[in-house]
């Protein structure tokens, strides 16, 4: 949503063209792989080589400036610890050094702009790329030149859907404590790690944690972490507790209307943080005389979109959780919880059960039950994003290849509504000259 708003305003204001530049560095770690994405203004002309003792990956990007601030410390990757600058080969280029924790395989390829994303240089560590320094590179002899720029053909592959998983509480904040001394902070972290593993098995999806150890994070900082990771959704994991031992069952919470309005007002006033939510659109707003009104409108639209997605995902989560555990509420419940207040990131809070209920406390502490809960959450996220894939993702590209077999009584308008697209888009995808359909006809359904 934010990217669309940014692009729309940039188009309106006839944004000028600039030379190539490195605009952002994004990192997606998993248990055995790490992906680093460099966002650029134009297609990169680059070369790279690996060095040993210590292990490093060096990337030269030619005829390029740099907007993003480095170094970038990476805490949650098993393969990389830092991305930093080094002395470039010439004044018109930049040199990046990825400090590695171990010898690893590296694969680099460029991606062309696709549905909301610009030019990107993707660095996959731990994949099937070469290991060690290629011929022509040498740590000992600075006079030996690195390899010549590698010609790269961009593969037709979209980005991953990024799920930020937030294990509630942590550190000196234990959360609720059950009768059998089960700590909520331990339950939430265990479920979160299982959910991360399940999501990372789904092609086109990847998961990051706001915390991976027993550490304390401020509530409002959790959304900031998700934003830094470019998350498409924030799922906060909790375990409920009340004074009575009787209530049990899972529930899902979404942001209520009154808190949403207060949050928007706060963000409008904090002009220095507009760029976090609106990207390039914030720079356009600075040049307008009606900045406050435009910011209000854009943030309202972004929040409405986030709440709508959160409501939809929340309903799907409850449907899947109902297959593995009892539900306390069968519909998403509105609340003013702080972790849900990011205008630009759809967010839901999942109460996995009542730790104050002795029977449910035992279940929540059980690894097998935790796995079932995580599996249900992963299935719900996969199901929702299959139906409503974010632009530029692999899910969206796969969705564009869907084929529908026409049944009796179906029309283009019915199919457009069902698949979240338009009549004209279906007509164009199938080169239809009329809206008349026949039973058994195969139609290609474009992505929404």
UniProtKB/TrEMBL annotation:
Pfam families per record: Amidase_3 (PF01520), AMIN (PF11741), LysM (PF01476)
Superkingdom to which the source organism belongs: Bacteria
EC number, as in UniProt: 3.5.1.28
Alphabetical keyword list: Cell wall biogenesis/degradation, Hydrolase, Signal
Residue ranges of every copy of the LysM domain listed in the record: 402-445
Enzyme class, spelled out: hydrolase
Residue span of region Disordered: 123-155
A GO BP annotation: cell wall organization
Record's GO cellular component terms: outer membrane-bounded periplasmic space
Reactions performed catalytically: Hydrolyzes the link between N-acetylmuramoyl residues and L-amino acid residues in certain cell-wall glycopeptides
CDD domains from the UniProt entry: MurNAc-LAA
GO MF term (any one): N-acetylmuramoyl-L-alanine amidase activity
Position of the signal peptide: 1-19
Record-linked InterPro entries: AMIN_dom, LysM, LysM_dom_sf, MurNAc-LAA_cat, N-acetylmuramoyl_amidase_3
Entry's family note: Belongs to the N-acetylmuramoyl-L-alanine amidase 3 family.
Protein name: N-acetylmuramoyl-L-alanine amidase
Source species of the chain: Gallaecimonas xiamenensis 3-C-1
């Amino acid at each position: 949503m934010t990217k669309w708003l940014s692009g729309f305003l940039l188009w309106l204001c006839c944004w000028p063209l600039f030379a190539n530049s490195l605009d952002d560095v994004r990192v997606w770690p998993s248990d055995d792989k790490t992906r680093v994405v460099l966002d650029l203004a134009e297609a990169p002309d680059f070369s790279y080589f690996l060095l040993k003792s210590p292990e490093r990956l060096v990337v030269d990007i030619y005829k390029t400036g740099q907007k993003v601030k480095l170094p970038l410390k990476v805490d949650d990757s098993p393969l990389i610890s830092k991305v930093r600058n080094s002395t470039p080969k010439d004044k018109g280029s930049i040199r990046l050094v990825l400090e590695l924790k171990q010898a690893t395989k590296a694969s680099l390829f460029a991606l062309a702009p696709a549905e909301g994303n610009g030019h990107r240089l993707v660095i996959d560590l731990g994949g099937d790329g070469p290991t060690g320094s290629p011929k022509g590179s040498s740590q000992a002899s600075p006079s030996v030149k690195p390899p010549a720029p590698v010609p790269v053909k961009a593969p037709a592959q979209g980005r991953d859907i990024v799920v930020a998983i937030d294990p509630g509480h942590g550190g000196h904040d234990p959360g609720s404590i059950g009768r059998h001394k089960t700590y909520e902070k331990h339950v939430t972290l265990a479920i979160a790690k299982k959910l991360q593993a399940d999501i990372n098995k789904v092609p086109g999806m990847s998961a990051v944690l706001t915390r991976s150890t027993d550490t304390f994070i401020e509530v409002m900082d959790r959304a900031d972490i998700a934003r830094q990771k470019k998350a498409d959704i924030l799922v906060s994991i909790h375990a409920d507790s009340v004074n009575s031992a009787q209530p049990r069952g899972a529930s899902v919470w979404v942001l209520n209307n009154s808190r949403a309005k207060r949050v928007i007002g706060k963000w409008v006033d904090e002009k220095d943080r507009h760029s976090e939510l609106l990207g390039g659109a914030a720079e356009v707003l600075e040049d307008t005389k009606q900045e406050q009104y435009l910011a209000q409108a854009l943030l309202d639209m972004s929040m409405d979109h986030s709440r709508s997605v959160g409501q939809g995902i929340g309903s799907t989560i409850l449907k899947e959780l109902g297959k593995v555990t009892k539900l306390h509420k069968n519909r998403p419940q509105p609340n003013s919880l702080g972790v849900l207040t990011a205008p630009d990131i759809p967010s839901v809070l999942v109460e996995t059960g009542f730790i104050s209920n002795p029977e449910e406390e035992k279940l929540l502490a059980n690894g097998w039950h935790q796995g079932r809960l995580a599996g249900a959450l992963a299935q719900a996220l996969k199901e929702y994003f299959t139906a409503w894939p974010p632009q530029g993702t692999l899910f969206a590209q796969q969705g564009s290849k869907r084929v529908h077999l026409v049944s009796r009584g179906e029309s283009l308008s019915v199919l457009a509504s069902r698949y979240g697209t338009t009549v004209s888009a279906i007509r164009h995808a199938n080169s239809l000259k009329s809206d008349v359909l026949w039973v058994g006809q195969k139609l290609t359904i474009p992505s929404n």
